[in-house]
Amino acid sequence: MKVKNIVIYGAAAIGSVSLALTGLTSCDNDFLEEKSYAYTSSTSYNTPSELDMAIGYLHRTIQYLMYGEWGEHPYMMTGIGLDTYASKSQTFVTSDWTTLTPDEPGYVRHWYDYLCRIIHQSNVIIDAIDHRDINWDSDEQRDAIRAEAIFFRAFGHRCLAGMFGDSPIMLEPATSAKVDYVRSPRMEVWQQCVTDFEWASEHLPLTTTQNGRIVKAAADHMLAEVAICVGDYDKAIAAATRVIDGTDGDYYLMTQRFGSRADELVDRYGTPHSSYWDLFRMNNFNFQEGNHEAIWVCQYDYEGNISGTGGGGVTGWASAPAKCALENRFVSNFYNVDKRRTLSDGSIIQAFGWGAVTFTNSQEDYDAGINKSNVATDSTGYGGGSNHPTEWFLYDLWKDCGDDVRGSEEMISKKNLYQSGGKPWRQAIDEAKALYEQKVAEGDPDAEQYKITANDTLDLFPRIWKFGTDKHVNGDYRRYDPDFYMIRMAETYLLLAEAYMNKGDNASAADAINVVRARANAPLCTAADVNIDYILDERARELYGEEHRFITLSRLSSKENPILVNRVRKYGYRFPAATNALVTNAPNIQDHQWVYPIPTQVIEANSGAVFPQNEGY
User: Fold this and answer.
1) How far apart are CA 252 and CA 292, in angstroms?
2) Four-point Cα dihedral 192, 198, 199, 201, nearest 10
3) What CA–CA distance (Å, rounded) separates 306 from 298?
4) Residue 182 in contact with residue 169, Cβ under 8 Å?
5) CB environment 349-387: b (16+ within 10 A), e (fewer)
6) Cβ neighbours of residue 345 under 8 Å, at least 6 residues apart?
7) How deeply is 448 buried, as exposed, middle or buried, from its count of CB atoms within 10 A (0-12, 13-18, 19+)?
8) With contact defined as beta carbons under 8 Å apart, do 497 and 531 qualify?
9) What is the pLDDT of residue 308?
10) Please, what is the end-to-end C-alpha distance for the chain in angstroms?
């Protein structure tokens, strides 16, 4: 069992709690009087340990946003509905962007709400540090805690601007209900982020013994991104370079095998393993575990409720059967043996059955599964993954990529899904469709049972090994302990490349990109290859499902050039066997949807000042 060294479970109470206490002995019956015992930001946050606990609340909120089991909610920032993956839901996170409104889905309001909570809590901590007489062990201790709060304040503003556009700049804690917020231009929000990330960078530690805590490199990485947003490319280059050249600590790409499974040379199918594969194995995610590429990692609590009866968030849904926040959402785990098809040559296409499902710890269990033959009794359901890779990500993105390990069978299993001999995913689907058409042509009265529908294909797709494992915790298939990269150094190189490209130095941009591609054994690019689409493609190859892709695409977009919209139209998800025109044609995203709408509740609550809705909603 892994014991994680992290301090993110301390609750930060910013309201008051009224407790009715009953006194057992009193002459004047005062035990009948209700007393209010307030534990608020005015009665707490008076010691370094209390402030450190309050920082824990910020980490816990990030943990909730990234792992919370609210349907598609955790993935709104990482790319759902865009060019790399989508949901099987018939909503904007798939193809029908007409369903995205200021009122629906509630995920939009949820993200806005929690990002504002992060900013508010950060301001409470900063205010306490700045205005209270606290007995610090040293100035460095004070500045480090303040810098972590400053980092989170900047991160909250960066996400608001990246997801919603113009946003309020909030630099003071709200001590009472405030109803007159004003949306500041996006560029001003980013400039405030630059100021905050710079301060955080100057005062955060180079390293920490606690998994998940914020370090100097994280601030400089984020500084590089927002400096690009405001057009200060020299500042972005300097910040990214400090992360890369060792100024910010001992960080580098993991180019050699490492970690908990480094002694395993190949997988069960004989595919060689790489250091890229190692990055996503349990117990390998954190710097403290020997991963020098990990700059900021959101921690996962697999010891949360595994019974499936808990509430929301991490501890409620952590590792309940079929509810692991990553493996269940990103990995195809659907049993449906009655979709077995026998072709005229006798081979079996089991495109929707055991061969595609749960990879247990036992080869014998796997073999027993795919050899089941009793169709009448072996058909069963087991929560198919809902985050479906786009066709563009699965296939087109890897053309001309040679032996790039990131698109290889090691990382994307396209051939090991079928009892029929390892046929690629689309080939098996196409053969199954052809069999149905043959049965119809022959006039077979049972032809309908051979039909492959869109719903059939939603729950089965090539397995993305970044978000799954063939060896679960203690052999229990319900338990999977994956932390989540918030910042990985490979992205720092790609930010550096973007800054160089914007400055007109494509040769240096190519050099930065090639550090990442060399580790992946991909063909190196040239200066002539470099443009923003090439960088976005490379980010998809390296950071699929990790990067904050909505923010990446949105920060690059404008009314005149909505890059996010254009890429969704070009590469967005289409159901491979659907007959519905909505999902077989290009996604119907509109030009204005390069930002999310402002939730109606936010606008209505801000009664003291005009808080305009984003154009088009």
Assistant:
1) 6
2) 140
3) 20
4) no
5) bbbbbbbbbbbbeeeeebeebbebeeeeebbeeeebbbb
6) none
7) exposed
8) no
9) 32
10) 49
Alpha carbon distance 611, 237 (integer Å) = 35
pLDDT at 422: 52
- Measured distance CA(163)–CA(112) in Å, rounded: 9
Q: Which helix (H) or strand (E) holds 412?
A: strand 412-413
Give me the residues of the chain with pLDDT under 50, please.
Answer: 1-39, 304-323, 334-338, 351-383, 416-421, 577, 579-583
Is the full-model pTM beyond 0.70? yes
Cis peptide, bond prior to residue 48, ω within 30 of zero: no
User: Diameter of the chain by CA atoms?
Assistant: 95
Q: How far apart are CA 144 and CA 539, in angstroms?
A: 31
CA 414 to chain centre: 23
pLDDT score at 17 = 24
- Going by their DSSP bridges, the two strands 348-349 and 341-342 should be labelled as antiparallel
- The pair of three-digit structure tokens given for residue 312, joined into one six-digit string: 């929301």
Query: What is the rounded distance in angstroms from the CA atom of residue 69 to the CA atom of residue 313?
Result: 6
Of 125, 190, 198, nearest to 161 by C-alpha is 190
Q: Which residues pair with 294 in a beta bridge?
A: 488
The secondary structure of 494-512, three-state, reads: HHHHHHHHHHCCHHHHHHH
Residue 409 confidence (pLDDT): 87
Distance CA 161, CA 168 (A): 9
Going by C-alpha positions, the residue among 185, 181, 184, 183 that lies closest to residue 607 is 181
Return the axis-axis angle of helices 216-229 and 186-203, rounded to nearest 10°. Answer: 160
For 19, the enclosing helix (H) or strand (E) is: strand 17-19
SS3 298: strand
Q: Does residue 402 contact residue 518 with C-beta atoms inside 8 Å? A: no
Contact between 411 and 363 (Cβ < 8 Å):
no
What are 389's strand-pairing partners? 85
* Radius of gyration of the chain measured on its C-alpha atoms: 26
Residue 428's pLDDT is 64
- pLDDT at site 418: 44
Assigned token pair, 188: 């001003």
Give CA–CA dist 520/406, Å, rounded: 6
Q: What is the DSSP code (8-state) at residue 475?
A: G
| 166/609 Cα distance (integer angstroms) | 15
In 3D, which of 242, 247, 252, 224 has the Cα closest to residue 519? Answer: 252
Number of neighbours of residue 524 by Cβ within 10 angstroms? 12
Determine which helix (DSSP H) or strand (DSSP E) holds 223, and give its type and residue range.
helix 216-229
d(CA 456, CA 460): 7
Asked if residue 408 lies in contact with residue 399, where contact means CB atoms within 8 angstroms, the answer is no
Q: Which residues contact 506 (CB under 8 A, 6 or more apart)?
A: 500, 527, 528, 530
User: pLDDT value at position 460?
Assistant: 62
C-alpha pair distances (Å), 209 with each of 5, 205, 214, 428, 486: 8, 11, 11, 49, 18
Token pair listed for 239: 């910040």
